[in-house]
């Protein structure tokens, strides 16, 4: 399951976290609370879980600034120095994230770099893959037109638009909220959320007077807290503080750790494969040496006094040196002619035959009851233009046995 973990950093060094599935449903009804060790234990054996880091809104400022046309192309480098008078700390110590320029204004978030770095380091210690970083107030889900104010654990979280909001201590909330300049007509909705409806009702007294006009926005009261007012499906699309100096890096060390054991296995497999190949090589080499020895032994029989590093080629040369040339054989013609003559002389039986390549003649052994049949066969073969000669004739009782040679007529 591709889970996402929403980890919220608290001011007292603790964390709150809640898990969501890839469809955007919470997997647990309530959030968990604990330190880094408790968070690591809760994650269990998950490999590099995806985390959305929720920073304390009291440490992150959302604002907008007028942009001069001359600095639009180099906004990220120049605008921070244009704001030096508004920021107490040195600009180099501040982490800025900018939204798109609309007209002559740009919306932005900024926070002290140490605050962001500390939160990231704490989660990376427990092997988390931090993909998004936003302040808590930009996680609040509000109506398309309107604002949401959540009072939880002595802190007021307020979101007044898609990219604007703040978080302040409850003691300062009445003054800050009463001075808000945002305007909403009767189509807007102001949602007040607190632990009890009585507290939510009391929060109405903090609102600007124009929000309470008869034609002002609808005021809704609800019991709840921070976690009941956010959703995994409603994330601010404009900002992600996981950029710039805090952009995600290639997880080289995690890759090394993940591949250490497979690397050992691959190395062992490679060694075994090399051992097997080496064994096959030596076996093949031994077989080759044995065959070569046998070839050389044959060569020594042919040429006892010969010396050669290549006995096969030496024997081929010796054969060629004999001057032997292959000539076409006449065996098929002799057999065919003899067979035709025997077919016309059924009284004679063929008992065996042998062909001599050197003499180019066919010798056949025959049996018959009458000698005249042998002469008839010889005459029939001779009429085919061949030389047929009875070499030996003997009698075995009533059977006449004879040997005949058949060859081509010598010119």
Automatic annotation (TrEMBL):
InterPro entries per UniProt: ATPase_NBD, GspL_cyto_dom, GspL_pp_dom, T2SS_protein-GspL
Membrane topology: Single-pass membrane protein
Record's keyword annotation contains Transmembrane: yes
Pfam families: GspL_C, T2SSL
Domain GspL periplasmic stretches: 257-401
Function: Inner membrane component of the type II secretion system required for the energy-dependent secretion of extracellular factors such as proteases and toxins from the periplasm.
Protein family membership: Belongs to the GSP L family.
Protein name: Type II secretion system protein L
Annotated organism of origin: Saccharophagus degradans (strain 2-40 / ATCC 43961 / DSM 17024)
Taxonomy of the source species: Bacteria, Pseudomonadati, Pseudomonadota, Gammaproteobacteria, Cellvibrionales
